[in-house]
């Protein structure tokens, strides 16, 4: 534990710096760094992330005692630099209190502005500034934020609007105004009193008037917000550990709501949606920062080009745009010039796209935050490649800049252009986060979760989103909001999650109580279908068909870079020629797993398969297998041809036989007729195949040992297909894999059957094919005796689904009944079937690789379970010297990037 808990910054000096983000959080570290490089930042101090963890151990009273001296000195330091005093009615200092974890978590924790106000301080500020509207606007904002964040004043149920917003609407109606900024001083004073009264009535707490009490309440509330529901959910989604904690930054207030020469805004050094190298952002005159991100007022664009693009989408002509919605570049040219220079300075300093918050107080520009901006998968790839071309980063950094999981977004479907021509546009909003989304309308986050859990695709429609909506946003295909700009909460979070989002669709009227949305006179109910185009901001009635995404040149360039640095190859798991072709287009270097059982479920095949299983003699089985042989050969030929010149690892039959037999009366009657026996005979045979624990029963190599004719038929099908392709001038590269080996002698028996059949096939075709016989290591005993198995097996493929199941003793099909409790109680950090357990299962894999290669140097080893497409698992495979990882076709690019990163990180 660091003894120093508070770090100061201000006036071009700072006790922290950018590389101290683990201790000071991203915000605190960057505030310090901006001070050091000459960016104007209001003075203040940061309380460390360690203190947050301490807060949860020792509680509020003890933390206040531990921090008291340092915070008192830090406040005095801020007072000195600002030349005013905290709590002094004549010359008051107000502060903001903000959260800031080491990983960016936009909107997930709490912020309080204008702290330090009470009735006496407000009167003193009026006397000092001569601007009562500004003072009471700041005061009502402070009471509202503090009441919500610290005192817990929130809507009582999901249909209700925010209690403070309800009071604001009443007062605006009484005065006859539409916008908050048009409220009179008297109305603002009325809001302060009504807010305080409502807080007392709903929470039972009086609003604190002592600024020091306010400060401690806010600091501890920010610590508490680290463990709020939305922050916990966001950390789960992003893989951020709970133990990191949040820092708290306390800064002198600068005010964007002091009149028409004041403003507030959010900006990005590049487009976070598509990666375009274009400075962009939004601002509001005479407002505070919360107004921009909350989406209560739709803001204006910072740049002229951004403003013109916005007006074109909104159907506003140039004359009206200039008169009513001017960009900052046009309305505040001097400030814009400074802002543009500083954003460029910050991007060049951090060598990455920056997401910045700023305030203009009476013509002076202040920066309140900078961070590496959240971005979509498309923007991530484009920005990395552009920064590489611009010489700002090198190739290895470009590879490391891209998050493997976010590549998934580039592979999402897009709307079919022909279908769009027929689609009915019902409204236009802002293209807040690109993509295509189609689903049924829901209005509340919990409904989105429930509908999603029931298998529905949903679009969440909100007036504006708040951080409480995170779980619903995660469950939805897309998000549509009536309010908010390109930097609103909905837009920023949706881009970070890769969700399609259209924000600020002003013509929609959402009614939470009736669960309807009215768009240009048409009422859409919960459950009605709509489609969103997050790239253009258009909303369509009904379901618009989609098609596969087309990948950009930047994506190809990134994949080529990956190939330059990677050591671990990526194969695919594919059971059809189509899957093989898709994976090959994504850069797969072969097939790591073809599951032969998936080929048996078509009508004619399943009947022949069932006939083979239900036969009670070798002759009966061989007769049925002869019917299956041409089907199997055709399937293998298609896959080997699709992967011509690349290795194809084919697993022999693995699942329990009872999975293939008919359990229904109609199916049993069909089989009785087919086989010329009575239904009772079929029923008896089906019943005899039932097992108490089929996953540990008669499956895998045990089937081939009991019924060697199955192994012989499959070997014949594979090698016949390969011989035919060879005669056609192709280069088939089959590998035959024996599943579920636990004992060397199981493998030897199956290898003999394969080799005997291979000789027969090669004699029949008058040609030979080079092929290898290997095994799937998925039983712990096989890993422990890998040195023995390697005397016979030519390669190992690790089936990590079963290996995880047998190592933990968890049933993959039943883990859902206890996994949530294990994760909640931190018994497990992650689901071991999604992320490879490196300590246990990983140790078995590493041991097996070492033992196998000790006997057979150069033994080829790969992984083919679901973990083959999960980035941290792929990196583990690379680290222990595996040759390849195999995953589903659409995860091939993800695995390729993770494998390249593993090589670069070495």
Question: What's the short version?
Answer:
This protein has 906 residues and is an alpha/beta fold.
Core attributes:
eight-stranded parallel barrel; alpha/beta; 906 residues; single chain; eight-stranded mixed sheet
How would you describe what is shown here?
There is one protein chain. This protein has 37 helices and 34 strands. The mean pLDDT is 92. An eight-stranded mixed beta sheet has the order 15-25-24-17-18-19-20-16. An eight-stranded parallel barrel has the order 27-28-29-30-31-32-33-34, surrounded by six helices. It has a six-stranded antiparallel beta sheet with strand order 2-1-3-8-6-7, sandwiched between helices. With 906 residues, the protein is α/β, with parallel strands linked by helices. A hairpin with a 2-residue loop joins strand 22 (516-519) and strand 23.
Secondary-structure topology with pairs:
Blueprint: E1 6-10, E2 13-14, H1 21-36, E3 44-47, H2 49-58, H3 60-82, E4 85-86, E5 92-93, E6 95-101, E7 111-115, H4 119-129, H5 132-149, H6 163-175, H7 185-203, H8 211-225, H9 229-238, E8 246-252, E9 263-268, E10 280-285, H10 289-294, E11 300-301, H11 304-314, H12 318-324, H13 328-331, H14 333-350, E12 354-361, E13 364-372, H15 377-389, H16 395-401, H17 407-410, E14 414-415, H18 417-422, E15 425-428, E16 430-433, E17 436-442, H19 445-453, E18 458-462, H20 470-475, E19 478-481, H21 489-497, E20 500-503, E21 508-511, E22 516-519, E23 522-525, E24 529-533, E25 538-541, E26 546-547, H22 553-565, E27 569-573, H23 577-585, E28 591-595, H24 603-614, H25 618-642, E29 647-651, H26 665-675, H27 679-689, H28 701-706, H29 708-727, E30 733-738, H30 744-765, E31 772-777, H31 780-784, H32 786-789, E32 795-798, H33 800-808, H34 819-824, H35 841-855, E33 860-863, H36 871-879, E34 884-887, H37 892-905
Parallel strand pairs: 4-5, 17-18, 18-19, 19-20, 27-28, 27-34, 28-29, 29-30, 30-31, 31-32, 32-33, 33-34
Antiparallel strand pairs: 1-2, 1-3, 3-8, 6-7, 6-8, 9-10, 9-12, 10-11, 12-13, 14-26, 15-25, 16-20, 17-24, 21-22, 22-23, 24-25
Helix pairs in contact: 2-3, 4-5, 5-7, 6-7, 15-16, 15-22, 16-22, 22-37, 23-25, 24-25, 25-29, 26-27, 29-30, 36-37
